[in-house]
Amino acid sequence: MCGFATCFSTDLTARVGAEEAVTVGIMLDRLAHRGPDGRGLETLEGRVVMGHVRLSLLDLSVAAAQPMMDSTGRYLLAYNGEVYNYRELAEELKLAKIDEIGDTAVVLEACIRWGVGEACRRFEGMFALAFHDRDEGRLFLARDVFGIKPAFYHQRDGRVWAASELKAFEPVVGAAHPEFSSVMAMLLGAPHLGPASPWPGVGEVEPGSVVEFKSGSDQAKVVVFDAIDQWVSEDRYGEISAMTVADYDKEFARLFGRAVSRATVSDAPIGVGLSGGLDSSAVLGAMAGGNEPVVAFHADVRGHESERQYAEKAATAMEAKLRVAETTPQDFVGALAELTYANDYPLGYHPNSIPFQAMAGATSDAGVKAILTGEGADELLGGYGWVGDRLFLKRARRPFDLLFRSFQRIGWDRGAHAIQLLAPSSRAGGSDASSRLRDLGNAQQDQQWRDRAERAYGFLPAGEEREFAEGFMHTCFGHLQSLLWRNDRMGMWSGIESRFPFLDRELAAFLLNSPRRLRGPQKSSKATLRRTAVDLGVPKAITEREKFAFSANPSHFCPVDPSYFRGGYLESVLPGIVGERRGADWDNFYFYLVATETWGRIFASGESLSSVRDALSESVKS
Fold first, then answer.
1. Closest CA to 76 of 30, 24, 33
2. Whether the Cβ atoms of residue 392 and residue 467 lie closer than 8 Å to each other
3. What's the pTM?
4. pLDDT, tens digit, for every residue of 274-315?
């Protein structure tokens, strides 16, 4: 995993030069944590400046340094990620010295020979890239189908700026300036804002798409090269539905083993992030059995949420070396400012980002550069009980579901106050309130995801089977994205790459075409994975254990006094939103307040991390 930043001129009369190179260099400074092993910057004939910071995992030599240019000087590539099938592609491309090159050289040649869209369609792995064609005067930005790797862009005044993280755009667009509805979405726990962002005019490259820019044109062309809802077909669903449980388990085990094997390709040390749950334990089981013991890393959230005993059971059973990073409430408050900066968004939705980052730090200290994790299993194997609940599915189709669920949690009187703050005319039911509430929490995008899921499984008759399939595909578009964002930002803050074998294309397509009785019967969530895990040597205490979310309870990890808000960001944009703490129902919303206040101080108000850290510390003392 790496990071890139670039500037491309669409104005035929204005070349990029020293000024743009300096700005791209500053953008790279903000991405330095993503690439501790190298840094490069190239300017190509006044049309593009491309920079890259490198985390070396495949081909550790300087031959794989980026940005990478072809031998003719026509093409330039900056690439972030891993393409696991690069050797097969290198053979197809008939490249020389296949055993001596890494995936970057293959990605470059594939984009040249096949075009960016077709090349990306053939890549198996995770990636985001910027590719420039000098002769055609084009810049391409692309991102893998699950959106594992990040990529953002901003276009104005004949320039296209692109980078791997939002914070890198500050030298170009200035401080964050979120829309009012975006602030409210943050307060209601939205993990991030999808294609929109709090930075003016900065958008996100959508998963599975290529965004193309051409010299002489202000228009961006977006082409979707792949989408997970397109993997579902009535014929394939019927074939898998006809399988016996034994045949299904056998095929699942084969695909899972292949996915884990692919995800371990590396020329640098690699380990596993071990929560103590079923998914990561199964990954460990599939990795174990080699000549050297697997190194496993665990985040121990001290107190009633500790899962350390289960991580220890898994490590012992599979002869892994276990390293533990402990997290306490004091660590949480101390790290909140820094990790909010790392995350680019408030940490309200995933307070477990703090223990995850502590694990990433321990991984880095051990000299390991990448970990395999279990994300994607719940979304693809039916691991969330609430998704299968028919009442949830019925309510989840309402555009304002996020609003209503959040107001139930924080109290209806506080929710009513929030509506009044959002749009005063809401007291009379005015149109202004309706339009703003419709935007809250990206309800429109959320509905688009649901529509795609409904179309994918349109061949199924109405009922629980179809609702199950649609519900879990929707989590791949929504909740899974927040987990991938967390793992990327928290891991890369310590220079650690996360890899996700459950998101292997062939395995994921198999699961998305699987009926409920095989994928995850209601009375035995992730049943096929449990049986496979037993065969892999995962202890019974884990394979028969109920799902336990890797979490961090805000009521225990956020002892911040209301004095923290005095004269701060939220007082300036939502005066009166902060009230007295008032029991358990208030805890979650209060943490969202703290998280959003911290984000606003750093990114909107421009306070230094040390200043915000001191303010948090003082509020705890008071």
1. 24
2. no
3. 0.90
4. 999 999 999 999 999 877 899 999 999 876 678 899 999 999
